[in-house]
Structure formats: structure tokens, C-alpha cells
Amino acid sequence: MHPALATVHKPILVAAALGVFALALLLILTRAGGPSNAFASSHAEAPLISQDPRADNTDLYAFVSPDNTNTVTMIA
Q1: Cα 36 versus chain centre, distance
Q2: 9 φ, ψ to 5°?
Q3: Which one has a higher pLDDT value, 47 or 11?
Q4: Structure pTM?
Q5: CB count, 10 Å around CB of 75?
Q6: How many Cβ atoms are within 10 Å of 64's Cβ, its own excluded?
Q7: What's the pLDDT score for residue 67?
Q8: What are phi and psi of 62, to 5 degrees?
Q9: Smallest Cα–Cα separation from 58: which of 46, 75, 45, 76?
Q10: For tag attachment on the chain, is the N or C end more exposed, with fewer CB atoms within 10 Å?
Q11: Which of 12-16, 28-32, 34-38, 60-64 is predicted with the least confidence, judged by mean pLDDT?
């Protein structure tokens, strides 16, 4: 390979390697670093609900019992 061509290809290879590294890092951070569950809105900030907290029935929690996997406890 001609020495002038080697100096032209080297910056391109370095840029390509950095691009691949940046993409791999982005994929790792977005896949592994995020929460494993979804977040839901409680709607408690809605104007009418804030005046009547008893009407805010959007929160529902369900748990499978660790002692008996056939039992589900729901709290609303």
C-alpha cells in the first residue's frame, strides 16, 4: 500500500471504530441500565381528583404470595 493511502485510511478506520464503540456503549446503557418495570401515572395531579382523594382509585397493586403461589393479594 502506498504510504499516502495509509494515512488517508487511518483516520477513517479510527472514526469507524469510535462509531462502533459509541453505538455498542449506547446499546448497553439503554438495554441494561434502565428500569425492569414500567411506571404508571396515579392521576393524583388532576384538578378534580386533588379535591377528592377518595375518588382517586387508579392505584392498584397485586402481589403473588411467596408462601402460596395460587394466592394473589390486591390492594386498591
Answers
A1: 7
A2: -75, -25
A3: 11
A4: 0.35
A5: 8
A6: 11
A7: 86
A8: -130, 130
A9: 76
A10: N
A11: 34-38
Q: Say if residues 72 and 65 touch (Cβ distance below 8 Å).
A: yes
Residue 42 has pLDDT above 60, yes or no: no
Find the length of the chain.
76
| Helix, strand, coil percent values for the chain (each to nearest 5) | 50, 10, 40
The two counts, helices (H) then strands (E), for the chain are: 2, 2
Alpha-carbon span 43 to 38, nearest angstrom: 16
Chain position carrying cell 456503549: 25
Determine the residue type at 73: T
Q: Pick from 46, 71, 76, 44: which is nearest to 60 by CA?
A: 76
Burial of 26 (0-12, 13-18, 19+ CB in 10 A): exposed
**Looking up cell 414500567, which residue turns up?**
38
Cell of 44: 393524583
